[in-house]
Amino acid sequence: MNFEDIQAVKNLLSEPQKIVIIPHKNPDGDAIGSTLALWHYLKYRGHEATVIVPNDYPKFLKWMSGNDQILNFERENSQAKSKIEAATLIFTLDFNHLGRIGQMEEPLGKLTVPFVMIDHHQEPSDYAEIMYSDVTMSSTCEMVYNFIEYLGDAESITPEMASCLYTGIMTDTGSFKFSSTTAKTHRVAAQLIEKGAESTEIHHRVFDTNTPGRLHLLGTALNNMVILKDYQTAYITLSQEELDAHKYQKGDTEGFVNYGLTLEGIIFAVIFIENREEGIIKISFRSVGDFSVNEFARRHFEGGGHTNAAGGKSNTSLTETATHFESLLEDYAVELARPSI
């Protein structure tokens, strides 16, 4: 953040505000961790704050302090709309375009109050008066830590806030293995542990709470994996029938796409998941090296994200989507033939 933005935020927070904090649709660990940490901080500063999520999120994220105070826009629509209409300040975290919040875009678009964006995704839109946007950051949680530090309140970080922030950093860095993890990321993580984040317990709560259904679904996903050695690419498909057969719950496919990158010689991994309720195929893209899945997703699948991690969607069938994906790879043959390191 530059000096002018820091001063602008300080001015906004210099008197009590009614604040709504919003993550993207289908929030992940970084989205929930950052919004709850900011919620704790703003309440400490004496503001009335509410986290409103566009829709539900995985059970393995619902242990964090403050989770029981989150409003679900789909499930608690009237209460959530009332909070939005009464807001004097809006914080948007872990997304940079209002199209990422689904049905919440309409009521937010009617507001005339200031918006503050904190986000690390590429190509932000300009809906926010104050934009803390940095694509080099590992996670929005690392940025929220910096945000609190910029405001001179790093000493106010409680164990509850530290746990939320550590969760988001841990999940968005793939347990600190993705290329976005910097020396500063590790220093922030260490400081959060010093402030009370129990790293071993957090890892257990997020990664070690599998159901039999999820593990069986993982087996199906791995069995479905297609390996295209000529393009150093691997992809997984999961149909609605396969999800239903294993009693799919939100979050069950989290991390499945990364298994493709554990294969020697693979630099591009994708998972296609059928969602009949929304009538789409949800897609996650991952890569290593300089192959930009952000550009690939934006160009071909109405998506985007980061250089090495992005999302997208398709409106055709699962089979047609996978076939179309394979047909695109020839145009990227030179890029996908490069060594990953």
Automatic annotation (TrEMBL):
Under InterPro entries, the record lists: DDH_dom (IPR001667), DHH_sf (IPR038763), DHHA1_dom (IPR003156), Oligoribo/pAp-PDE_c-di-AMP_PDE (IPR051319)
Residue span, DDH domain: 18-169
Recorded GO MF terms: nucleic acid binding
User: What Pfam family is a match for this entry?
Assistant: DHH
Q: Where is the DHHA1 domain?
A: 248-319
Q: Which domain of life is it from?
A: Bacteria
Which Gene3D superfamilies does this one have?
A: 3.10.310.30, inorganic pyrophosphatase (n-terminal core)
Record-given protein name: Phosphoesterase RecJ domain-containing protein
Q: Which organism is it from?
A: Pricia antarctica
